[in-house]
Amino acid sequence: MQLVFVTAEADPFAKTGGLGEVAGSLPAFLHKQGIDVRVIMPKYCSISEDFQREFKHLAHFDVPVAWRKQYCGLEEMVYQGIPYYFIDNKYYFTRSRVYGEYDDAERFAFFSRAALESLIHIPGFKPDILHCHDWHTALIPLMLKEFYNREPLYYQLKTVFTIHNLKYQGVFSKEVLGDILGLGMEFFQENSLEFHGAINFMKGALLYADQITTVSPAYAEEIQNPFYGESLDGLLRKKRELLTGILNGIDYKVYNPFNDPNLVMAYHDLSLAKEENKKYLQSFLRLPVRGDRAVLGMVSRLVDQKGLDLLAGVIEEILELDIQMVILGTGENKYEEMLRYFASKYPEKLAIRLEFSDKLAHQIYAGVDMLLMPSRFEPCGIAQMIAMRYGTVPIVRETGGLKDTIIPYKDINETGNGFSFMNYNAHELLFTLQRALSIYKNNKPVWNTIRLKALKSDFSWNRSANAYIEIYKSLLHLS
To answer: Is this structure's pTM higher than 0.90?
Structure first.
Protein backbone atom coordinates (compact mmCIF):
# COMPACT_ATOMS: atom_id res chain seq x y z
CA MET A 1 0.00 0.00 0.00
CA GLN A 2 1.35 3.39 -1.04
CA LEU A 3 -0.13 6.40 0.70
CA VAL A 4 0.32 10.18 0.44
CA PHE A 5 -0.61 12.61 3.20
CA VAL A 6 -1.35 16.06 1.79
CA THR A 7 -1.38 18.68 4.53
CA ALA A 8 -0.82 22.40 5.06
CA GLU A 9 1.38 21.70 8.08
CA ALA A 10 3.30 18.89 9.73
CA ASP A 11 5.50 18.91 12.79
CA PRO A 12 8.48 19.49 13.02
CA PHE A 13 8.50 21.57 9.81
CA ALA A 14 5.43 23.72 10.51
CA LYS A 15 2.85 23.47 13.29
CA THR A 16 0.16 25.91 14.37
CA GLY A 17 -2.08 23.43 16.19
CA GLY A 18 -3.59 19.96 16.19
CA LEU A 19 -3.36 19.45 12.42
CA GLY A 20 0.42 19.88 12.47
CA GLU A 21 0.65 17.58 15.48
CA VAL A 22 -1.34 14.82 13.78
CA ALA A 23 0.28 15.13 10.35
CA GLY A 24 3.68 15.02 12.03
CA SER A 25 3.06 11.92 14.16
CA LEU A 26 0.48 9.65 12.47
CA PRO A 27 2.63 8.93 9.38
CA ALA A 28 5.38 7.58 11.64
CA PHE A 29 3.01 5.01 13.12
CA LEU A 30 1.68 4.02 9.70
CA HIS A 31 5.27 3.64 8.54
CA LYS A 32 5.93 1.23 11.43
CA GLN A 33 3.02 -0.89 10.18
CA GLY A 34 4.78 -1.33 6.85
CA ILE A 35 2.88 1.26 4.82
CA ASP A 36 4.85 3.27 2.27
CA VAL A 37 3.62 6.67 3.50
CA ARG A 38 4.84 10.01 2.20
CA VAL A 39 3.91 13.59 3.06
CA ILE A 40 3.40 16.60 0.77
CA MET A 41 3.30 20.09 2.28
CA PRO A 42 4.21 23.68 1.34
CA LYS A 43 7.79 24.89 1.65
CA TYR A 44 7.23 27.80 4.04
CA CYS A 45 10.02 30.30 4.57
CA SER A 46 9.58 29.68 8.32
CA ILE A 47 10.86 26.10 8.06
CA SER A 48 14.11 25.82 9.97
CA GLU A 49 17.27 26.52 7.96
CA ASP A 50 18.74 23.33 9.44
CA PHE A 51 16.04 21.36 7.68
CA GLN A 52 16.13 23.38 4.46
CA ARG A 53 19.85 22.68 4.04
CA GLU A 54 18.94 18.98 3.75
CA PHE A 55 16.26 19.47 1.08
CA LYS A 56 17.02 17.86 -2.27
CA HIS A 57 15.64 19.41 -5.46
CA LEU A 58 13.68 16.81 -7.44
CA ALA A 59 11.95 18.76 -10.18
CA HIS A 60 10.34 22.00 -11.24
CA PHE A 61 7.26 22.43 -13.41
CA ASP A 62 4.32 24.75 -14.10
CA VAL A 63 1.04 24.43 -12.21
CA PRO A 64 -2.26 25.67 -13.69
CA VAL A 65 -4.07 28.25 -11.54
CA ALA A 66 -7.11 28.75 -13.80
CA TRP A 67 -5.73 30.62 -16.85
CA ARG A 68 -2.30 31.22 -15.29
CA LYS A 69 0.76 29.00 -15.08
CA GLN A 70 2.71 29.26 -11.82
CA TYR A 71 6.19 27.98 -11.07
CA CYS A 72 6.46 25.03 -8.69
CA GLY A 73 9.61 23.46 -7.32
CA LEU A 74 9.52 20.01 -5.70
CA GLU A 75 12.01 19.29 -2.94
CA GLU A 76 12.48 16.19 -0.81
CA MET A 77 13.79 15.31 2.63
CA VAL A 78 13.64 11.95 4.36
CA TYR A 79 12.81 12.48 8.03
CA GLN A 80 12.69 9.53 10.43
CA GLY A 81 12.34 7.16 7.49
CA ILE A 82 9.47 9.05 5.84
CA PRO A 83 9.90 11.01 2.58
CA TYR A 84 8.56 14.56 2.87
CA TYR A 85 7.97 16.57 -0.31
CA PHE A 86 7.88 20.35 -0.21
CA ILE A 87 5.99 22.47 -2.73
CA ASP A 88 8.18 25.50 -3.46
CA ASN A 89 6.78 28.80 -4.63
CA LYS A 90 8.20 31.87 -2.93
CA TYR A 91 5.30 34.13 -3.93
CA TYR A 92 2.76 31.96 -2.11
CA PHE A 93 4.79 30.65 0.81
CA THR A 94 7.26 33.36 1.80
CA ARG A 95 4.81 34.88 4.27
CA SER A 96 4.97 35.80 7.94
CA ARG A 97 2.31 33.24 8.84
CA VAL A 98 0.91 29.97 7.56
CA TYR A 99 -2.73 31.11 7.32
CA GLY A 100 -4.72 34.31 7.40
CA GLU A 101 -3.41 35.91 4.19
CA TYR A 102 -5.65 37.88 1.82
CA ASP A 103 -5.07 35.33 -0.96
CA ASP A 104 -5.44 32.07 0.99
CA ALA A 105 -7.92 30.79 -1.60
CA GLU A 106 -5.28 31.10 -4.33
CA ARG A 107 -2.41 29.89 -2.14
CA PHE A 108 -4.09 26.64 -1.18
CA ALA A 109 -5.76 26.09 -4.55
CA PHE A 110 -2.26 26.29 -6.01
CA PHE A 111 -0.93 23.94 -3.33
CA SER A 112 -3.68 21.37 -3.98
CA ARG A 113 -3.10 21.37 -7.73
CA ALA A 114 0.68 21.34 -7.23
CA ALA A 115 0.41 18.32 -4.91
CA LEU A 116 -1.44 16.43 -7.66
CA GLU A 117 1.02 17.53 -10.36
CA SER A 118 4.00 16.56 -8.21
CA LEU A 119 3.01 12.87 -8.17
CA ILE A 120 4.31 12.55 -11.74
CA HIS A 121 7.75 13.74 -10.59
CA ILE A 122 8.33 11.34 -7.68
CA PRO A 123 10.45 8.56 -9.17
CA GLY A 124 9.35 4.96 -8.70
CA PHE A 125 6.23 5.84 -6.74
CA LYS A 126 2.60 5.23 -7.72
CA PRO A 127 0.28 6.05 -4.83
CA ASP A 128 -2.92 4.15 -4.10
CA ILE A 129 -4.50 6.70 -1.73
CA LEU A 130 -4.32 10.43 -1.14
CA HIS A 131 -5.18 11.35 2.45
CA CYS A 132 -6.14 15.04 2.50
CA HIS A 133 -6.45 17.13 5.63
CA ASP A 134 -8.78 20.07 6.35
CA TRP A 135 -10.02 22.78 4.00
CA HIS A 136 -6.57 23.66 2.61
CA THR A 137 -6.51 20.36 0.66
CA ALA A 138 -10.25 19.81 0.33
CA LEU A 139 -10.30 20.57 -3.40
CA ILE A 140 -8.03 17.65 -4.23
CA PRO A 141 -10.80 15.00 -4.53
CA LEU A 142 -12.71 17.31 -6.91
CA MET A 143 -9.60 18.29 -8.91
CA LEU A 144 -8.63 14.63 -9.21
CA LYS A 145 -11.96 13.73 -10.81
CA GLU A 146 -12.27 16.89 -12.92
CA PHE A 147 -8.73 17.36 -14.27
CA TYR A 148 -6.97 13.99 -14.00
CA ASN A 149 -9.62 11.31 -14.59
CA ARG A 150 -8.03 10.14 -17.85
CA GLU A 151 -4.42 10.06 -16.70
CA PRO A 152 -3.11 6.50 -16.02
CA LEU A 153 -1.26 7.51 -12.84
CA TYR A 154 -4.39 9.03 -11.34
CA TYR A 155 -7.57 7.31 -12.37
CA GLN A 156 -7.41 4.51 -9.79
CA LEU A 157 -6.41 6.86 -6.96
CA LYS A 158 -8.70 6.85 -3.92
CA THR A 159 -9.13 9.81 -1.58
CA VAL A 160 -9.66 10.10 2.16
CA PHE A 161 -10.53 13.48 3.64
CA THR A 162 -10.16 14.27 7.35
CA ILE A 163 -12.05 17.08 9.04
CA HIS A 164 -9.90 18.41 11.87
CA ASN A 165 -12.18 21.34 12.67
CA LEU A 166 -15.45 21.90 10.81
CA LYS A 167 -15.56 25.56 11.80
CA TYR A 168 -12.82 26.39 9.28
CA GLN A 169 -14.13 25.43 5.84
CA GLY A 170 -12.38 27.68 3.31
CA VAL A 171 -15.31 29.89 2.26
CA PHE A 172 -14.50 32.43 -0.47
CA SER A 173 -16.25 34.65 -3.00
CA LYS A 174 -17.76 32.99 -6.06
CA GLU A 175 -15.22 34.74 -8.33
CA VAL A 176 -12.63 32.24 -7.06
CA LEU A 177 -14.46 29.50 -8.95
CA GLY A 178 -13.42 30.62 -12.43
CA ASP A 179 -10.51 32.95 -11.75
CA ILE A 180 -8.53 30.62 -9.49
CA LEU A 181 -9.95 27.12 -9.71
CA GLY A 182 -10.65 27.15 -13.44
CA LEU A 183 -14.09 25.61 -12.95
CA GLY A 184 -17.30 26.57 -14.71
CA MET A 185 -20.49 27.96 -13.23
CA GLU A 186 -22.02 24.47 -13.19
CA PHE A 187 -20.09 24.08 -9.91
CA PHE A 188 -21.87 27.10 -8.44
CA GLN A 189 -24.91 25.10 -7.39
CA GLU A 190 -26.33 23.86 -4.11
CA ASN A 191 -25.33 20.29 -4.93
CA SER A 192 -21.76 21.41 -5.66
CA LEU A 193 -19.47 24.12 -4.21
CA GLU A 194 -22.05 26.89 -3.73
CA PHE A 195 -22.52 27.90 -0.10
CA HIS A 196 -24.73 30.86 0.88
CA GLY A 197 -23.73 32.82 -2.22
CA ALA A 198 -20.04 31.94 -1.90
CA ILE A 199 -18.02 28.78 -2.57
CA ASN A 200 -16.86 26.34 0.07
CA PHE A 201 -13.65 24.33 -0.36
CA MET A 202 -14.51 21.79 2.34
CA LYS A 203 -17.88 21.11 0.77
CA GLY A 204 -15.99 19.91 -2.30
CA ALA A 205 -14.23 17.21 -0.28
CA LEU A 206 -17.45 16.10 1.40
CA LEU A 207 -19.02 15.67 -2.04
CA TYR A 208 -16.14 14.04 -3.89
CA ALA A 209 -13.91 12.15 -1.40
CA ASP A 210 -14.18 8.36 -1.30
CA GLN A 211 -14.07 8.31 2.49
CA ILE A 212 -14.50 11.01 5.16
CA THR A 213 -13.06 10.87 8.65
CA THR A 214 -12.94 13.18 11.60
CA VAL A 215 -10.90 13.17 14.75
CA SER A 216 -13.17 11.58 17.36
CA PRO A 217 -16.28 9.37 17.36
CA ALA A 218 -18.33 11.87 19.39
CA TYR A 219 -17.44 14.73 17.01
CA ALA A 220 -18.49 12.60 14.03
CA GLU A 221 -21.94 12.36 15.59
CA GLU A 222 -22.09 15.98 16.76
CA ILE A 223 -21.36 17.54 13.38
CA GLN A 224 -24.42 15.86 11.89
CA ASN A 225 -26.54 18.14 14.11
CA PRO A 226 -27.21 21.85 13.49
CA PHE A 227 -25.57 23.11 16.71
CA TYR A 228 -22.16 21.72 15.73
CA GLY A 229 -22.67 21.27 11.99
CA GLU A 230 -21.63 24.78 10.85
CA SER A 231 -24.32 24.70 8.09
CA LEU A 232 -22.92 21.46 6.65
CA ASP A 233 -24.85 19.10 8.94
CA GLY A 234 -27.38 18.25 6.22
CA LEU A 235 -24.66 17.18 3.79
CA LEU A 236 -22.85 15.25 6.53
CA ARG A 237 -26.06 13.38 7.35
CA LYS A 238 -26.34 12.42 3.68
CA LYS A 239 -22.73 11.24 3.77
CA ARG A 240 -22.97 9.44 7.12
CA GLU A 241 -22.19 6.05 5.55
CA LEU A 242 -18.79 7.41 4.46
CA LEU A 243 -18.08 9.26 7.75
CA THR A 244 -15.97 7.71 10.51
CA GLY A 245 -14.71 9.25 13.74
CA ILE A 246 -11.21 8.11 14.72
CA LEU A 247 -9.70 9.52 17.87
CA ASN A 248 -6.36 11.26 17.44
CA GLY A 249 -3.38 10.01 19.40
CA ILE A 250 -0.24 11.65 20.72
CA ASP A 251 3.38 10.78 20.14
CA TYR A 252 4.60 9.06 23.29
CA LYS A 253 8.20 9.75 22.34
CA VAL A 254 7.59 13.51 22.32
CA TYR A 255 5.39 13.48 25.43
CA ASN A 256 7.33 11.13 27.67
CA PRO A 257 7.44 12.13 31.36
CA PHE A 258 10.15 9.55 32.00
CA ASN A 259 12.76 11.32 29.84
CA ASP A 260 11.31 14.70 28.87
CA PRO A 261 14.28 17.12 28.66
CA ASN A 262 11.98 20.06 29.51
CA LEU A 263 11.29 18.79 33.04
CA VAL A 264 13.39 19.33 36.15
CA MET A 265 12.62 15.81 37.35
CA ALA A 266 11.61 12.74 35.38
CA TYR A 267 8.65 10.64 36.48
CA HIS A 268 10.34 7.66 38.10
CA ASP A 269 8.41 8.55 41.25
CA LEU A 270 5.06 10.15 40.31
CA SER A 271 4.36 12.00 43.56
CA LEU A 272 7.89 13.31 43.95
CA ALA A 273 8.19 14.30 40.28
CA LYS A 274 4.86 16.18 40.37
CA GLU A 275 5.97 17.97 43.53
CA GLU A 276 9.34 19.04 42.12
CA ASN A 277 7.98 20.10 38.73
CA LYS A 278 5.23 22.05 40.47
CA LYS A 279 7.75 23.87 42.67
CA TYR A 280 9.84 24.75 39.63
CA LEU A 281 6.82 26.04 37.71
CA GLN A 282 5.67 28.20 40.62
CA SER A 283 9.15 29.63 41.05
CA PHE A 284 9.70 30.21 37.33
CA LEU A 285 6.37 32.04 36.99
CA ARG A 286 6.97 34.01 40.20
CA LEU A 287 4.13 32.49 42.14
CA PRO A 288 4.54 31.65 45.84
CA VAL A 289 6.01 28.15 46.12
CA ARG A 290 3.18 26.40 47.93
CA GLY A 291 3.01 22.62 47.76
CA ASP A 292 -0.34 22.58 49.57
CA ARG A 293 -2.08 24.77 47.01
CA ALA A 294 -3.68 23.26 43.90
CA VAL A 295 -2.34 24.73 40.66
CA LEU A 296 -4.71 24.91 37.69
CA GLY A 297 -3.39 25.17 34.14
CA MET A 298 -4.59 26.11 30.68
CA VAL A 299 -2.58 25.70 27.48
CA SER A 300 -4.94 27.05 24.88
CA ARG A 301 -5.88 29.51 22.20
CA LEU A 302 -7.74 32.31 23.98
CA VAL A 303 -10.95 32.17 21.97
CA ASP A 304 -14.61 31.41 22.53
CA GLN A 305 -14.28 27.88 21.14
CA LYS A 306 -11.96 27.00 24.03
CA GLY A 307 -14.46 28.21 26.63
CA LEU A 308 -12.80 31.52 27.44
CA ASP A 309 -16.22 33.12 27.67
CA LEU A 310 -17.11 30.62 30.42
CA LEU A 311 -13.86 31.33 32.22
CA ALA A 312 -14.54 35.07 31.97
CA GLY A 313 -17.84 34.57 33.75
CA VAL A 314 -16.33 32.94 36.85
CA ILE A 315 -12.62 33.83 36.83
CA GLU A 316 -12.87 36.08 39.87
CA GLU A 317 -14.74 33.41 41.82
CA ILE A 318 -12.04 30.88 40.84
CA LEU A 319 -9.24 33.20 41.90
CA GLU A 320 -10.89 33.70 45.28
CA LEU A 321 -10.52 29.96 45.92
CA ASP A 322 -7.41 28.53 47.56
CA ILE A 323 -5.66 27.92 44.23
CA GLN A 324 -3.07 29.21 41.81
CA MET A 325 -3.59 29.37 38.07
CA VAL A 326 -1.23 29.32 35.09
CA ILE A 327 -2.37 30.20 31.55
CA LEU A 328 -0.29 29.93 28.37
CA GLY A 329 -1.57 31.02 24.97
CA THR A 330 -2.61 33.83 22.67
CA GLY A 331 -5.92 34.81 21.14
CA GLU A 332 -8.62 37.42 21.11
CA ASN A 333 -7.60 40.81 22.47
CA LYS A 334 -10.52 40.99 24.91
CA TYR A 335 -9.37 37.79 26.63
CA GLU A 336 -5.72 38.81 26.70
CA GLU A 337 -6.73 42.12 28.31
CA MET A 338 -8.95 40.30 30.82
CA LEU A 339 -6.10 38.03 31.86
CA ARG A 340 -3.68 40.95 32.18
CA TYR A 341 -6.16 42.68 34.48
CA PHE A 342 -6.67 39.68 36.76
CA ALA A 343 -2.96 38.81 36.79
CA SER A 344 -2.26 42.32 38.13
CA LYS A 345 -5.13 42.09 40.63
CA TYR A 346 -4.14 38.61 41.88
CA PRO A 347 -0.36 38.48 41.31
CA GLU A 348 0.12 35.65 43.83
CA LYS A 349 -2.59 33.53 42.24
CA LEU A 350 -2.53 34.03 38.46
CA ALA A 351 0.48 33.83 36.15
CA ILE A 352 -0.01 34.35 32.41
CA ARG A 353 2.22 34.03 29.37
CA LEU A 354 0.59 35.48 26.26
CA GLU A 355 2.76 33.54 23.83
CA PHE A 356 3.34 30.01 22.67
CA SER A 357 6.29 28.13 24.10
CA ASP A 358 6.52 24.40 23.55
CA LYS A 359 9.00 24.07 26.42
CA LEU A 360 6.77 25.95 28.87
CA ALA A 361 3.75 23.95 27.69
CA HIS A 362 5.54 20.73 28.70
CA GLN A 363 6.45 22.28 32.05
CA ILE A 364 2.83 23.29 32.66
CA TYR A 365 1.49 19.83 31.82
CA ALA A 366 3.96 18.36 34.31
CA GLY A 367 3.75 21.05 36.99
CA VAL A 368 0.02 21.72 37.43
CA ASP A 369 -2.45 19.54 39.29
CA MET A 370 -5.45 20.10 37.01
CA LEU A 371 -5.93 21.20 33.40
CA LEU A 372 -9.01 23.24 32.46
CA MET A 373 -10.62 22.62 29.05
CA PRO A 374 -14.17 24.03 29.16
CA SER A 375 -14.52 24.00 25.37
CA ARG A 376 -17.68 24.99 23.54
CA PHE A 377 -16.73 22.33 20.99
CA GLU A 378 -13.58 20.25 20.65
CA PRO A 379 -13.17 17.98 17.61
CA CYS A 380 -10.59 15.90 19.44
CA GLY A 381 -8.40 17.86 21.81
CA ILE A 382 -4.81 16.93 22.44
CA ALA A 383 -4.02 18.95 25.57
CA GLN A 384 -6.13 16.68 27.79
CA MET A 385 -4.28 13.61 26.49
CA ILE A 386 -0.89 15.20 27.08
CA ALA A 387 -1.95 16.35 30.56
CA MET A 388 -2.97 12.83 31.55
CA ARG A 389 0.33 11.48 30.23
CA TYR A 390 1.94 13.72 32.86
CA GLY A 391 -0.41 12.72 35.68
CA THR A 392 -2.42 15.95 35.48
CA VAL A 393 -6.17 15.61 35.98
CA PRO A 394 -8.37 17.23 33.29
CA ILE A 395 -11.55 19.20 33.99
CA VAL A 396 -13.48 19.36 30.72
CA ARG A 397 -16.83 19.96 29.13
CA GLU A 398 -18.42 16.86 27.64
CA THR A 399 -18.04 17.51 23.92
CA GLY A 400 -16.23 15.86 21.00
CA GLY A 401 -12.95 14.21 21.83
CA LEU A 402 -13.13 15.44 25.43
CA LYS A 403 -16.19 13.26 25.91
CA ASP A 404 -14.40 10.32 24.28
CA THR A 405 -11.24 10.57 26.39
CA ILE A 406 -12.35 11.69 29.86
CA ILE A 407 -14.19 9.24 32.10
CA PRO A 408 -15.77 11.44 34.79
CA TYR A 409 -14.98 10.48 38.37
CA LYS A 410 -17.89 8.88 40.23
CA ASP A 411 -17.95 8.64 44.02
CA ILE A 412 -20.08 5.49 44.00
CA ASN A 413 -17.40 3.26 42.48
CA GLU A 414 -14.36 5.57 42.48
CA THR A 415 -13.81 5.25 38.73
CA GLY A 416 -12.67 7.94 36.33
CA ASN A 417 -9.59 9.72 35.02
CA GLY A 418 -10.90 13.30 35.29
CA PHE A 419 -13.91 15.54 35.84
CA SER A 420 -16.49 16.80 33.37
CA PHE A 421 -19.66 18.86 33.07
CA MET A 422 -22.35 18.68 30.41
CA ASN A 423 -24.00 22.06 29.84
CA TYR A 424 -22.15 25.05 28.42
CA ASN A 425 -22.52 27.03 31.61
CA ALA A 426 -19.94 29.01 33.59
CA HIS A 427 -21.23 27.91 36.97
CA GLU A 428 -21.23 24.25 35.98
CA LEU A 429 -17.52 24.78 35.26
CA LEU A 430 -17.11 26.41 38.68
CA PHE A 431 -19.02 23.69 40.56
CA THR A 432 -17.08 20.92 38.82
CA LEU A 433 -13.81 22.63 39.70
CA GLN A 434 -14.93 23.04 43.32
CA ARG A 435 -15.75 19.32 43.50
CA ALA A 436 -12.31 18.40 42.14
CA LEU A 437 -10.64 20.79 44.61
CA SER A 438 -12.57 19.26 47.51
CA ILE A 439 -11.23 15.80 46.66
CA TYR A 440 -7.73 17.20 46.08
CA LYS A 441 -7.68 18.80 49.54
CA ASN A 442 -9.68 16.36 51.64
CA ASN A 443 -9.19 12.91 50.16
CA LYS A 444 -5.63 12.41 48.92
CA PRO A 445 -5.96 8.62 48.44
CA VAL A 446 -8.87 9.13 46.02
CA TRP A 447 -7.08 12.01 44.29
CA ASN A 448 -3.99 9.86 43.80
CA THR A 449 -6.16 7.11 42.32
CA ILE A 450 -7.70 9.53 39.80
CA ARG A 451 -4.27 10.89 38.94
CA LEU A 452 -2.85 7.39 38.44
CA LYS A 453 -5.77 6.41 36.18
CA ALA A 454 -5.13 9.53 34.12
CA LEU A 455 -1.45 8.64 33.84
CA LYS A 456 -2.25 5.08 32.75
CA SER A 457 -4.80 6.06 30.08
CA ASP A 458 -3.53 4.98 26.68
CA PHE A 459 -3.69 7.63 23.96
CA SER A 460 -0.81 6.41 21.82
CA TRP A 461 -1.32 6.26 18.06
CA ASN A 462 -1.28 2.45 17.87
CA ARG A 463 -5.04 1.85 18.06
CA SER A 464 -5.96 4.88 15.93
CA ALA A 465 -3.36 4.11 13.27
CA ASN A 466 -4.85 0.64 12.88
CA ALA A 467 -8.32 2.18 12.42
CA TYR A 468 -6.98 4.29 9.54
CA ILE A 469 -5.31 1.23 8.02
CA GLU A 470 -8.68 -0.57 8.01
CA ILE A 471 -10.20 2.34 6.08
CA TYR A 472 -7.36 2.31 3.57
CA LYS A 473 -7.74 -1.45 3.10
CA SER A 474 -11.48 -1.18 2.57
CA LEU A 475 -10.97 1.39 -0.20
CA LEU A 476 -8.47 -0.90 -1.93
CA HIS A 477 -10.60 -4.00 -1.28
CA LEU A 478 -7.81 -5.62 0.72
CA SER A 479 -8.61 -8.13 3.43
So the answer is: yes
